[in-house]
Amino acid sequence: MTDRPMPSFAPLTGVIFVILVVVSFILGGETPDIKDSPQKVLDFYNDNDSEQIWASVILAWGTLFFFFFLGVLRSTLRAAEGAVGYLSSVAFGGGLVMGLGMLSFAGFTFTLADAADHLNPVAAQALNGLNSDFFFPLAIGGGTLLIATGLSAIRSRVLPAWLAWAALVIGIAAITPAGFFAFLVFLLWTLVASVLLWRRAPAAAAPPGQTTLG
Question: pTM (2 decimals)?
Answer without folding.
Answer: 0.89
